[in-house]
From TrEMBL:
InterPro entries in the record: Aldolase_TIM (IPR013785), DUS-like_FMN-bd (IPR035587), DUS_fam (IPR001269), DusA (IPR004653), tRNA_hU_synthase_CS (IPR018517)
Catalytic reaction annotation: 5,6-dihydrouridine(20) in tRNA + NAD(+) = uridine(20) in tRNA + NADH + H(+); 5,6-dihydrouridine(20a) in tRNA + NAD(+) = uridine(20a) in tRNA + NADH + H(+); 5,6-dihydrouridine(20a) in tRNA + NADP(+) = uridine(20a) in tRNA + NADPH + H(+); 5,6-dihydrouridine(20) in tRNA + NADP(+) = uridine(20) in tRNA + NADPH + H(+)
GO MF, one example: tRNA-dihydrouridine20 synthase activity
The DUS-like FMN-binding domain, residue ranges: 20-323
Protein's organism: Marinobacter segnicrescens
CDD domains, alphabetized: DUS_like_FMN (cd02801)
Function as written in the Swiss-Prot or TrEMBL entry: Catalyzes the synthesis of 5,6-dihydrouridine (D), a modified base found in the D-loop of most tRNAs, via the reduction of the C5-C6 double bond in target uridines. Specifically modifies U20 and U20a in tRNAs.
Protein name (database record): tRNA-dihydrouridine(20/20a) synthase
Catalytic center residues: 105
Family: Belongs to the Dus family. DusA subfamily.
Amino acid sequence: MSMPETHIKSPAPLSRRFCVAPMMDWTTRHYRYLARILSRRALLYTEMVTTGALIHGDTARFLQHDPLEYPLALQLGGSDPDELARCAALAEEYGFNEVNLNVGCPSDRVQNNMIGACLMGHPEKVADGVRSMIAATSLPVTVKHRIGIDGRESWEDLCHFMETVAAAGCRTFIVHARIAVLEGLSPKENRDIPPLKYPWVYDLKARYPELEIIINGGIKTFEECHQHLEHTDGVMLGREAYHNPWLLAGVDPELFGEEPSVSSRHDALRAMLPFIEAELERGVYLSHITRHIMGLFHGQPGGRQFRRHISENAHRPGSGIEVVLDALAKVREPLPQPDPA
Ligand SMILES: Cc1cc2nc3c(=O)[nH]c(=O)nc-3n(C[C@H](O)[C@H](O)[C@H](O)COP(=O)(O)O)c2cc1C
C-alpha cells in the first residue's frame, strides 16, 4: 500500500486564528490526530481534565498525546490555585503549547467542585487560579468562558470578570457567546438554548483591544469565520469541526493563505492508517479510534456506506485495520483536486 508522505514536518507556530474547541469524549487524541492531518494551522484543545484527576489519577495517561498534534492546548478544570499551578507545570513538562482554564462548563457534577461556568460568579477566584498558573509555567495561560451565568448576566458583570482576570495576567479569552444557565438546563441544552450574542464578544474586543479575544458558539462556515474575524482575533469551532472534520482541510488555505495540508479525504484517512495500526498494536480497540473518523466522508457519495461499515464492524472483537480499508473502498475516490468543504 502506498502511503502519502506526511505533510507535517514540524509544528506550525501557535496561532489562535482558528481553534478546535475542547470537547469531552470527542477531542480525544485519536480525533486530534485526524484533525492535525487535515490542518497544520488549527490550534487543537484537549478534552477538559480536572486538576484532581491529573494530580491523583494516572497523570501520564491523561496527558498522553502525539507530538504530531502540536500546536496543542491542555484544558484544565479546577479552581484551587495550588492544584492549578501544579497542573500548569505538568502541561509544560509534557510538551503542551498552552494551558487553558475552563470557566464555561455548566455541568452539575463540576459545579459542586467549583469547576467550570459557576466560576463566572467568582471572578477573584478565577484570577487567583490564573495568577498561580502564570507563576508556575512559561506557557500562555488562557481562559475559556461564557458571556455570563444566570443571575450574573449583565454587561457590567462581564466587564468586571474580564478586568479582574486580565489584572491577574491573562491576555487571551475564548468567549462562548451565550450565557450558561446553571439552574434547569442540561449541558447539552446549554449549548443551544441560551441565545448567541456575538455583538457582546465584538464589544469586548472593542473595549479591550489589548486583549486577544477568540469567539465561540454556533460557527459553521468559513464565511462566518471571516465575518467574526473582522471583529475578533480568532474563531473556535466545536461541533461542526467534529461532525464535519473535512472542514478543517480548508483552514490552512482559507484562513492562513497556505497550501492545503491534504488534498483528499482518502489521502487523509490513508495518512492515518499507520497511526491506527500502531494504536491497535498497543491494545486500543478499533472502535475507540474509528468513532472519531465517522464524519470524514459526511455528505459524500458512499459516505453513508462508509459509516455503516464501520459502525457494524469496528466493535467486533479482534477487528483490525481491514475494517477501515473495506470501509474506505466503499467511497469513490475523486480526481485529485483540493476540495476543502
Ligand atoms: C460533546 C461536547 C463536549 C464538550 N466538552 C467541553 C469541555 O470539555 N470543555 C469546554 O470548555 N467546553 C466543552 N464543550 C463546549 C465546546 O467547547 C463549545 O464551547 C461549544 O460546543 C460551542 O461551540 P460550537 O457551537 O462550535 O460547538 C463541549 C461541547 C460538546 C458538544
